[in-house]
């Protein structure tokens, strides 16, 4: 982790989400990234509430468990966070093009 990061949990969580490892998020990382979590569609929630009846068979419970495990949380907005190192590299490239060799005299 970078020493300049404001929140190491946020940084580590972003890295895991961008690598596609959302199952490996810690509780602290999930809590920090909660604002970026997309809500599931309303029709899926209604289907889950309907399935919660007392007369659910064993097979239906297994199917529901598999369905819930397959559904991954979606953190769509994290893909739009630019890597800091790329931004800094662009800044220094522009500074070099602007100042040229005069930067040595500064």
Could you tell me how far the N terminus lies from the C terminus, measured between alpha carbons in angstroms?
32 Å
Mean of all residue-level pLDDT scores: 75
Q: Name the shape in a single word.
A: rod-shaped
The number of helices is 5
- One letter per element, helices H and strands E, the order comes to HHHHH
Please state the structural category. Answer: mainly alpha
Whole-angstrom Rg? 22 Å
Approximately what portion of the residues adopt beta-strand conformation? Answer: under 5%
Query: Which residues form runs of ≥5 with pLDDT under 50?
Result: none
Helical residues, percent:
40-55%
Q: What does the main sheet amount to?
A: none
Oligomer: single chain
**Tally of DSSP β-strands:** 0
Structure overview:
This is HAT C-terminal dimerisation domain-containing protein. The protein has 106 residues and is mainly α. It has a domain at 40-72. Helix content is 53%, strand content 0%. It contains five helices and no strands. It has helices at 8-18, 27-32, 42-51, 58-70, 84-99. The model has no long low-confidence stretch (mean pLDDT 75).
Write a short abstract of this structure.
With 106 residues, the chain is mostly helical.
What would the keywords be for this entry?
0% strand, 106 residues, 5 helices, mainly alpha, rod-shaped, 53% helix
Map the helices and strands.
Elements: H1 8-18, H2 27-32, H3 42-51, H4 58-70, H5 84-99
